[in-house]
Specification:
Elements lengths: L1 H4 L39 H23 L2 H7 L5 H59 L5 H33 L6 H35 L2 H21 L13 H14 L42 H6 L11 H27 L5 H7 L4 E2 L2 E2 L7 H26 L7 H29 L6 H41 L5
Antiparallel strand pairs: 1-2
Family: Belongs to the major facilitator superfamily. Proton-dependent oligopeptide transporter (POT/PTR) (TC 2.A.17) family.
GO molecular function: transmembrane transporter activity
Subcellular location: Membrane
Length: 498
């Protein structure tokens, strides 16, 4: 099982082999729209994922239509300084990446993934409509007092879009993964391919926004430039709702944040308790009553094991104990997983602070340079297109060329481990930022006569760094979840309906 999990997945799967059904129902507890056990032959799999990938594509068109050229909009239309514009762009991007924490919590605890996406798409669409109307205001009236209204409406639309993004980003990928039964070997392979297509749709949306939409914004008008992604969002909402009968839904089981918090509180409450030498006597519910798979106990971070120690008075009374006083070993191990992954997650803050510059400082740098390519003039915001192209080229090159070479050198099935891949990507990012500093130093000396080809080289380097770092860390963070799914598979096959 572990060996098969390490096998390299192809970038694209032309067709799936004929599926051997272990059961007519899925084995992971998913249900259909009528809250009945999901049938494999009529729900989920690629028939449902096309709708999910489609809505992710439309959301990316809208997101990058704003983000790629936002600094130009703030400086050219709202007349902000370069410093203020760069700060406000970073604040908006930061908000867009913070709101998914809220969206994920609501989806896990209350509304489920499907309804969270529907509600968020609606908010996102309202935000895009508000932004589009605000962009048309200067053309509709020339009154001076409308400048403040224009500014308020622009930022209202921007942050409504950021709020809507919070429910889409964490839920579409998870909802797509829910369409494949991890207990079925054929669907498990298809699940790995889904993430390739998912990331591919993100880059296609980014490419479309960075070329066509940005050109419309700079040459036709901002109103039309924001209306185009608004139409995409309306279409995405309609497409997503259309596929509702094909989706597999996971029942709401509570927020992981709550489960982790319970472990911390219980461990602190039991800080005076002596840990037993035999970890097998720690509290764990029977497998027959636990909907999720059990996680084996580890000896690291032993302080949190105190959350699973059964007090003597609880044994005597035999009554149910509050989850804020007593947790299962699996809950404790979930927290330990997060703690072990925290250093890797923290290192990504530096990486994404670098990529954030591509939507602010790098565009301002490109606007001060000569962007002509023969008879054509390249909009500064379109410079990031070279990043997208670099990613789309490097992914198949990595899969078809670098992995086989690295496999022969390292003897690993994947060629490079996830952490080696992340480290190599971070090194490329450092080189890219050093190169950007040299470009800026030279630009200040030469001023506007410097060709933007220097920027394009730097952006292509950033794209190559993404292939290694972003996808590598995604695989690393996803691995514990995949391992849990695989450990659940043998038990699930014997009980397909729950």
């Amino acid at each position: 099982m572990a060996a098969s999990a390490d096998e390299e997945r192809p970038l694209l799967i032309r067709h799936l082999p004929r599926q051997d059904e272990y059961s007519q129902y899925t084995s992971d507890g998913t249900v259909d729209i009528y809250n009945k056990p999901a049938l494999k032959r009529s729900t989920g799999n690629w028939r449902a994922c096309f709708f999910i990938i489609g809505v992710e594509f439309t959301e990316c068109v809208a997101f990058f239509a704003i983000g790629k050229n936002l600094v130009t909009y703030l400086t050219g239309v709202l007349h902000e300084s370069n410093v203020d514009a760069a700060r406000n762009v970073s604040a908006w991007i930061g908000s867009s990446f913070f709101t998914p924490l809220i969206g994920a919590f609501l989806a896990d605890t209350y509304s489920g993934r499907y309804w969270t996406v529907v509600f968020s798409l609606s908010i996102y669409t309202v935000g895009m409509l508000t932004l589009s109307v605000s962009a048309f205001l200067p053309q509709l009236t020339n009154s001076s007092y409308n400048r403040d209204i224009h500014r308020v409406m622009s930022y209202l639309g921007l942050y409504l879009a950021a709020l809507g993004n919070g429910g889409i980003k964490p839920c579409t990928s998870a909802l797509g993964a829910d369409q494949f039964d991890s207990a079925d070997p054929v669907e498990r392979v298809a699940k790995g391919s889904f993430f390739n297509w998912y990331y591919f749709s993100i880059n296609i949306g980014s490419l479309l926004s960075g070329t066509v939409v940005v050109w419309v914004q700079d040459n036709v008008g901002w109103g039309v430039g924001f209306t185009i992604p608004t139409v995409f969002m309306v279409a995405g909402l309609a497409v997503f709702v259309t596929g509702r009968k094909l989706y597999r839904y996971k029942k709401v089981e509570g927020s992981p944040v709550t489960r982790v918090s319970q472990v911390v509180v219980a461990a602190v409450r039991n800080y005076i308790v002596v840990l037993p030498d035999d970890s097998s006597i720690l509290h764990e519910v029977p497998a027959s009553t636990e909907p999720n798979c059990k996680i084996e106990h580890t000896s690291q971070f032993r302080f949190f094991d105190k959350a699973a120690v059964v007090a003597s008075e609880s044994k005597e009374q035999g009554a149910a104990t509050s989850p804020w006083k007593l947790c299962t070993v699996s809950q404790v191990e979930e927290l330990k997983m997060l703690l072990r992954m925290f250093p890797i997650w923290a290192s990504m803050i530096v990486f994404f602070s670098i990529t954030a510059q591509m939507s602010s400082t790098f565009i301002e740098q490109g606007a001060a340079m000569d962007n002509r390519i023969g008879p054509f003039s390249l909009p500064p915001a379109s410079l990031s297109t070279f990043d997208v192209i670099s990613v789309m080229v490097c992914i198949p090159v990595y899969d078809a060329v670098l992995v086989p070479v690295a496999r022969r050198v390292t003897g690993r099935e994947r060629g490079l481990s996830q952490l080696q891949r992340v480290g190599f990507g971070l090194a490329l990012s450092v080189i890219g930022m050093a190169y950007a500093a040299l470009v800026e130093k030279r630009r200040l000396a030469i001023l506007p006569g410097m060709m933007s080809i220097m920027c394009r080289r730097r952006v292509r380097g950033a794209g190559a760094g993404k292939v290694f770092t972003a996808i590598g860390v995604f695989e690393f963070l996803l691995r514990p979840v995949a391992e849990r799914d695989e450990s659940r598979a043998p038990r699930s096959r014997s009980s397909p309906v729950r």
